[in-house]
Structure formats: C-alpha cells, structure tokens
Amino acid sequence: MGSTKFTIIGGDIRSIKLANLIALEGYKVNIYGFNNASFNTGLSESPDMNTAVGEADIVIGPLPCSNDNETINAPFHQGKIYINEVFQIMKKNQIFIAGRVSGKVQHLAQIYNVNTIDILEREDMAILNAIPTAEGAIQIAMEEMPITLHDSKCVILGFGRIGKILAKMLYALGADVYVEARKFSDIAWIKSYGYKPVLLNNIDSIIPQADAIFNTIPSIILDESKLKLVNKDCLIIDLASKPGGVDFDKAKGIGVKAIWALSLPGKVAPITAAKFIKETVFNIIGELGV
User: Fold this and answer.
1) Which residue intervals define the domain D-isomer specific 2-hydroxyacid dehydrogenase NAD-binding in the entry (predicted)?
2) Domains of the chain
3) How far apart are CA 142 and CA 135, in angstroms?
4) Which listed residue, of 53, 133, 176, 196, carries a Cα 20 to 30 Å from 142's Cα?
C-alpha cells in the first residue's frame, strides 16, 4: 500500500473516477465536494473540509480549478468551497494539483505559501488530454452533420496538440483535411502527413469550401468577416478555451451553426480522462520524490 495520502476536492465525474483509480492502487483517498452527487461515488466523503484537506499529502482539485477565481469548481457540492479556505488549511509540505489554475489563484497560493501545480501546463497531460478532446469533436460532428466525415472537407485551425491528433483521426476517416498553421516548420509537417496546409492569411480561400471547421486557437479567428465566408451548411466546432476562437453572436446572426465544445474529456470519456490525470499525477509525484 502506498504511503502517500490523497484528497480529491471538487470537480466533475472525472474527479470521482480519479479518486477510485488511485484507491484501487492501495492509497488512502479522501473525497470532498460531492455531497450532492446523484450517483454512487464509490468512496465515503470526508465529514468536513478540515479533515479532508488536513489528512492529505496531495490535494487534487478539478479541471478547471475554478470558474470565478474564488471558489473550487464543484458542480456536485451543495454550497461553495472557497479556495482561500482550502489554502488556509494546507501546510507547507502539501501539494495542490489542479487544472487551468488562473494567475489570481496562483497569487493566492503564494500568499498562503501553497505549492501549486497546474496539471494542464504539463506537456504529458496536455497531449493525453487532446485524445478524448479530438474524439469528442468527431462525435459532435457525426451527430450534427447531415453528411459523413468521409470525403468531407474539414478545416482545422491550429496545429498544436489537439490539431495534430484531430487531423490524424479525421484523415483516417477519409476526410479531406486542411490544416491552418503559421510556422513554416508546421506547414512542412502538415505536408509530410498528407494533409493540405493553409497559412493563416490564406484561410479566406478555403473557408467557403469547408463542410466542417474545427478551431483550436484561443483567440478570435472566426470574426464577422470570416464568418460571412462560411457556407451556411458548414458546422463550426470551437475546441479552444476561453475566450475561444469564434464570435458566436455574429455566427448566430449570420445563420452559421457554431458549437463551443468545452471540457470534452470529462463529458465523452471520463474514465479515460481520469486515467490520464492519474498517470500525470503519479509522474509529478515521481519527479518530486513525494
């Protein structure tokens, strides 16, 4: 049995699956922030936050950590869990791990001298997390489009982690894959994989032909001028974190269907997503020698 003690505080179903996966490996796991869950959590919830946090070596928060920079993202909790109260309980030798930890929360952690790690800033986690994100995007496209992805023209904006994995999956399905990139090195890689490269300043020429557009860039790329070029039967799926890459108000006004698909790993593959989180957490522990 491992000697490291864990507490999972707040989060969606991924967090509960994560707690159970860690417990299966023989570790002591507390959970807190799930008293309003309508499903079997598999573990007994700690009676209070002091017990839950105080007993742990590693405190694992949700992905994303917070939606308002003040409270833990805890959709299955009746009431609010304030981040500053969690940090007040934590001791110097404890570690707080969560996803998309904002600058404000990081600053709060510094005030309370809490060692905080943003798991989504790690390359290993970001790459693994892109797999269910890409699969979820394809699922949405299959459900929403009146045509097959096979032989359709799919445009991917951005050639980062999600863009790379999504392009591979769409290509395997027989789609005609166009990928936008800014770096000439990425353009070369896109060519080498058999996709069709498009420089950002040339996307106006391909947008009107697209059956589906997948955005991965967290900056408004599809503004009103670009959206006016989009075919009315085209589906836009925005996978980028806030502020996203699509002007949704303008898209609605023009009559273009656009879906902002956030947090797909937790929605389409929570068990797999939890497995990836666990692997990354254990990598962190191994690196730190905890």
Assistant:
1) 144-239
2) 5-121 (3.40.50.720), 126-266 (3.40.50.720)
3) 11
4) 196
Tokens of 284: 């962190």
pLDDT level of residue 1 (50, 70, 90 thresholds)? very low
Closest CA to 133 of 157, 155, 93, 164: 164
Per-residue model confidence as pLDDT tens digits over 52-63: 999 999 999 999
What is the DSSP track for 137-169?
HHHHHHHH-SS-STT-EEEEE--SHHHHHHHHH
- The model carries a pTM of 0.89
CA distances from 285 to 197, 236, 249, 271 (A): 40, 39, 44, 21
Phi-psi region of 120 (alpha: psi -120 to 50; beta: other; left: phi over 0): alpha
- One DSSP character per residue, 78-130 reads SS--BHHHHHHH--TT-EEEESS--HHHHHHHHHTT-EEEEGGGSHHHHHHHH
Strand partners, 115: 95
